[in-house]
Each structure stands twice: as structure tokens, then as C-alpha cells.
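Support reply, case 0932

Customer input (verbatim):
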Amino acid sequence: MKTFIAELEKAGLGQLLFDEPLAKHTTWKIGGPADLMLIPAGKDELVSAIRLLHKHGIPWTSLGRGSNMLVSDKGIRGVVIKPRDGLDYVRFDGNLVHAGAGYSFIKLAVMASKEGLSGLEFAGGIPGTVGGAVYMNAGAHGSDVSRIFRSAEVVTETGEVIRYEREEMQFAYRHSILHEKKGLVLEAAFELAPGDRLAISAALAEHKERRLRTQPLQLPCCGSVFRNPTGDHAARLIEAAGLKGARFGGAEVSELHSNFIINTGQATAEDVLTLMSHIQVTIQDRYGVSLIPEVLVVGER
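Our regenerated output:
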């Protein structure tokens, strides 16, 4: 690790933060320290860093805006890569929009509306970055990333930069090929359609208002904790089982939306995991349904 850090510092690939508390970087406000957090200066620097990581055999984890992620209380060993300013950009080319992995997915939807381009209205309330949205095939309101995705530039775990077209991404419900083939999105292209600016803005506003009204977004949370089972909704099952308000330690099932677990102030990752397990066991016992986590659990256990 020392040799790697020396090479990293010599190459000037970005900002280095040692023993960085990851609770500062997740929307749940939970998570132990990263051995090292790297905030790359740009796309080329990020690729060079991953090549160095591969050369030295050091594990790495990517972290966008920290939504949809639960970091363990012991934190993450190795390096956490947080694309930020260097991958925080957008450009429009007719009906195509190209966005860096670090660009806000919500902001992308707003910018598209200003350009009079339709297709991203569903994103008007989905937290996180473009890179995370592609990785998870993020979706809402009957649409998802796969509907508008054109291509993505991805750096593999060996540092090779490749391009994935839509048909190569193996998109499914909250899934992409990047779940099996480790890689980090550098830039994604989405194909939109011309539309009425006022109508697009109205749809975005409606989706945002609904989320604020039905989800506990003013409190530390990660978004939906469980995937919706086929033909049903996780929230309906959890509420029907009487689990709204269920609590373990500082983690609590939201009274506003039962598929959200909130951090009431001092929740640990173990609190959340214990509560998640209780929910899963209860739903399995009562309804014979296995709830699969949508949230990504990462770090040393």
C-alpha cells in the first residue's frame, strides 16, 4: 500500500483522504472509515489510478453520492474512489445527452427539460449520480435507465477503457452487467426525444412533489431498501405486516413509507442490517415472499 500511495502522490491523480469516515459520504449518514479515499482530478486520472490499483493488487470500491448504499461500521478496506468534479459534466448533441459519471441524475433530468428533451422525467427525484443510475438501472414511475440508454464508457478493474452499447448492458430490474463484470462508468449517453418544455417541467415537478409527500427525504435514508417482488410492492407487504415504526437501535422503518429505513440519529450499519433481517423473516413467514435488498451492502463485516 505504501508503494502504491507513493506512486499515486507522485502522479498527482487527485485528492487523497486517509481514514476518511464514510458516514460523511452516504445519505444514510452511516459507515466506518475508508483506508484511503481518492477523488480523481478527471477521467484520465481515474483510469490511471485504477491501473495502479490493479498493478498493486489493491481492492477498490466506487462511491457516488452515497445513496442506495450501506457501508459497514468497520468501513472499507483498500481504496474508495469518489468521482466528483472531474466527472461532473453534461453536454447535449441534438437528442443525445452525454453526462459524466459524477453528474447528479436529478440535475440531468432538469437540464434535459430546459433543452426541451423528454425521457428523463422519471429521474426527477432519484438521488445519486449518473454512474450509479446506470449501474443500478435506476427507475421510477414506470420507466428506467434502460429505456433511454444509448451507450457508456466504462473502465474495467484492470484499467481498460471499453464501450458498452445498450444491448450489451444486460439491463434488468435494478441490474446491469456491471454487477457481474466489475467496472466504473466514466460517461454515459442517453437518447431522448423532443418534447414540450412546459409539459416536461410539469412532470418533473409532479414527481418531485410526490416524493417529498410520500418519502422521508428530510431524514437520513438510502431510498428503497428492498426490491419490489413480482406483481407486488415491498412497501405494501411491510405495512400489511404491521412493521411501520419497527425499530432496532437507531434504525427505524419509516411511518411515511414502509420501504424506507431511517437513521433516527445514531443508527449503525448493524442496526440497519438487523432491522432488514427482521423484515425479511417476517414477510417470508407471513406471506411466503422473499424480499431481496435493493440497497448495496459494502465494507468489512
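We compared this against your earlier run and they match. Two observations from our side: The chain is about 30% helix and 25% strand. The mean pLDDT is 95. Please reopen the case if you see a mismatch on your end.
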